[in-house]
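Researcher: Here's a chain I'd like modeled. Treat it as a single chain, no partners, no ligands.
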Amino acid sequence: GVDEAITIIQKCSHNPENIEINALFDGDEVEPWETVMTIEGSLADFSHLETVYLGILSRSTKIATNVRRVVKAAGSKPVLFFPSRFDHYAVQPIDGYAAHIGGAYGVSTPANGVYWGGRA
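Model: Modeled as a single isolated chain. Structure tokens:
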């Protein structure tokens, strides 16, 4: 979700040329209390986006972390990500990407693979 959060800030903030973002990469493992992203600039330029980018980061992190835990527990067995029956269709692309970052071998729908070229 880091790439998507950065894109939202760059495209939807006021005066994006005055904002500096430093962040970890999608897929980087994070330690407790480690900073994932810093945003420097006038708060008035990007504070209206806080709920959006924090929601993106938290949901994607939750999915990638949970999938990575399952992948580690599965050892050499491939892990398939099948969320489509249990969540809103609109979140399938970003959830599928987060699962891919977490190490999922495959996904259940074409929408789950759209951001990374995966096939159902």
